Amino acid sequence: MNILDSIGSFLKHIRSSAYLDPVRDWLALLTLSMIALVGIIVWNVWAFDKVASGGTIGTSSTTASAIFSRSSLDAIHTIFTNRAAEETKYVTGVYSFVDPSQ
To answer: 0.70 exceeded by the pTM?
Structure first.
């Protein structure tokens, strides 16, 4: 708690000795905002340039393993085929949709 007390007393000292100057405060705020904006823009340009030239941000993986197996891809294809068949039943009129609010 000794560190927190010293930080608190330091902040009280700064607040009590500083006079209010809105122009200075706004200029400080705008200056810091502009510095942050320039930093963000520089970071985005660097990241875009790095990725556009084929690089990676962070550590790149050296080995690429097969992520998908053929059986899981076939299962996904079957699911979407079944969904499409159900959709055509609604479109062609095999199923009739009754709106409960009517």
So the answer is: no
CA atoms within 13 A on the CB side of 51: 8
What does the alpha-carbon distance between residue 43 and residue 57 come to, in Å, rounded to a whole number? 11
Domain encompassing residue 36? 20-54
The answer to whether residue 4 sits within a structural domain is no
Rounded Cα distance between 46 and 49, Å, is: 5
Written as six digits, the tokens of 95 are 């199923």
Number of domains making up the chain: 1
Q: What is the mean pLDDT of each run of 10 residues along the chain (102 residues)?
A: 76 69 89 97 95 82 71 92 92 82 80
- Residue 35 lies inside a defined structural domain of this protein: yes
What's the DSSP call for residue 62?
A: S
Q: Which residues, in sequence order, are CB contacts of 89 under 8 Å at separation 6+?
A: 95
